[in-house]
Amino acid sequence: MVERPADTRPVRLCQASLGALPKGVLRPEYDRAALTPGIVHIGVGNFHRAHQAWYLHRLMQRGAAQDWGIIGAGVRAYDAEMRRKLLAQDCLTTLVELTEGQRRAEVTGAMIDYLPPQEDNGPLIAQLADPAIRIVSLTVTEGGYFVHPVTNGLDTDHPDIRHDATNPDRPRTAFGAIVAGLRRRRDAGVGPLTGLSCDNLIGNGQVLRQAVVGLARLSDPDLADWIDTHCTFPNSMVDCIVPATGPTELELIRSLGIDDAAPVTHESFRQWVIEDAFCAGRPDWDKVGATFTGRVHDYEVMKLRILNAGHQILANVGEILNLGTIAGCMAHPLVSGFFRKVETQEIAPFVRPVPERSVAEYIALIETRFRNPAIIDTTRRVAFDGSSRHVGFVLPSIRDALAAGGSVEGLALVEAFWARMCAGTREDGTPIDPNDPYWDDLVATATQARETPAVWLEQRQYYGDLADFPAFREAFARWLTMIWSNGTTETLKTYLGH
Q1: Buried-most residue among 64, 195, 244, 280 (CB within 10 A)?
Q2: How far is CA 196 from CA 32, 152, 154, 217, in A?
Q3: Which ranges carry the Mannitol dehydrogenase N-terminal domain (predicted)?
Q4: HEC-encoded secondary structure of 334-377
């Protein structure tokens, strides 16, 4: 527990002030000035700092991994603001672990620099070409890999991909920057590096390889072959609930006696499962709790189908009913009952257990984590980018159930709630602000689907051929009609048999 002396001003976080932090705040015990870079991380958001950077920090606390310092990077203009905040505090981050009735603060220091974002990504390309860099890792969200919605290959028609293919020395995307950096490494005889995706995607390493190699092939087939042969792209599964930082979190950190412009709150649970395929070496993350295994797929299916799909089960209903947080959704008996019934009856049958945990035990663990009232994880954050998240997390279970002749009643209801949410208003009449890259199109389709439910499933870029399966199509239409006619509460009661 953090002990802040009474009547004192918060300590502004920076390297020089670490010794003045309140009693009970853990802080780096290693010489940060002696750290040297080994990793470039693209997408320095809250999750990266609470997860991957924390594992590396923990290794450094043991006196290890001193040559694996993280250099942060971004490829969009808005990354400049995060860079400004972090550089002003010497790239230190305060993590606040929240459990019911308890707060635990720790300052981490594994990041040592943050590159300036530029339109041509020049600084990022130069850093990736540095022989000291052996891993480039990414958290760029599920929808950030330019996957074609129908073919699942690289979307070569996307304007940013077309730009990078014709302007390989002035790329817009993270993948274009990686390709350019690898070209310099090859030409200089530096050697390959490992690309490590830390996003919630099935086979995220394979998806990253597809993006990098596929983009390189559009401009330099020989380079594409070199990357494909020499670089490695391990699959991984990452897990930790990390809310967005807003006024509440900023006030919390000040109440603990720390002035941090970019603090991160998180739950106590963390998991990182990684395929051990690193062509240029790696930190010993397994010594601080990560798992290296050849069974990453089983872990990621369990997590994405149960936790991430579970978030979609809750968040869309939560938005419709104006339940502000995931914990608030779990406190609502009908919504939590909906979550449990769908998870246990329609998702769990198609998920394999992992060595440490059965599927039933994992569902119970997720319920406990989601109920944590100390984690203010908003339904809006969780519902963001449903066009990617439903496709990646929910629809695979529907396909498995249909193939096995199982029930899809609950999963059809999940999709009906997404369609209802995308109409853009809650049942109390308040508006739902745009919350998807394709929001305008989704709202237009959801509005038509109120009278003609089949229109929603004809969005083939998301649903593919699922509209052709009568069991799913008819259940979806019935549920969506009921939601609009009788309301969400009565629909949930019907589904639960109340």
Answers
A1: 195
A2: 24, 20, 18, 20
A3: 38-287
A4: HHHHHHHHHHHHHHHHHCCCECCECHHHHHHHHHHHHHCCCCCC
| CATH code, 11-294 | 3.40.50.720
Instruction: Report DSSP state, residue 453.
Output: T
Residue 395 near residue 327, CB atoms below 8 Å: no
Residue type for 410, please? G
- In angstroms, the CA 157 to CA 386 distance is 22
Q: What is the torsional sign of CA 436, 439, 445, 447?
A: positive
Both structure tokens of 167: 């302007």
Asked whether the beta carbons of 95 and 105 are under 8 A apart, the reply is yes
The Cα–Cα gap between 87 and 81 comes to: 10
Q: Whole-angstrom Cα distance, residue 477 to residue 457?
A: 9
Locus of tokens 């599964």: 237
Q: Does this chain's domain 11-294 share its CATH topology with 301-496?
A: no
Sequential pLDDT tens for the chain (498 residues): 666 655 579 999 999 999 999 999 999 999 999 999 999 999 999 999 999 999 999 999 999 999 999 999 999 888 999 999 999 999 999 999 998 878 999 999 999 999 999 999 999 999 999 999 999 999 998 889 999 978 889 999 999 999 999 999 999 999 999 999 999 999 999 999 999 999 999 999 999 999 999 999 999 999 999 999 999 999 999 999 999 999 999 999 999 999 999 999 999 999 999 999 999 999 999 999 999 999 999 999 999 999 999 999 999 999 999 999 999 999 999 999 999 999 999 999 999 999 989 999 999 999 999 999 999 999 999 999 999 999 999 999 999 999 999 999 999 999 999 999 999 999 999 999 999 999 999 999 999 999 999 999 999 999 999 999 999 999 999 999 999 999 999 999 999 999
Domain range annotation of the chain: 11-294, 301-496
301-496 is a CATH 1.10.1040.10 domain:
yes
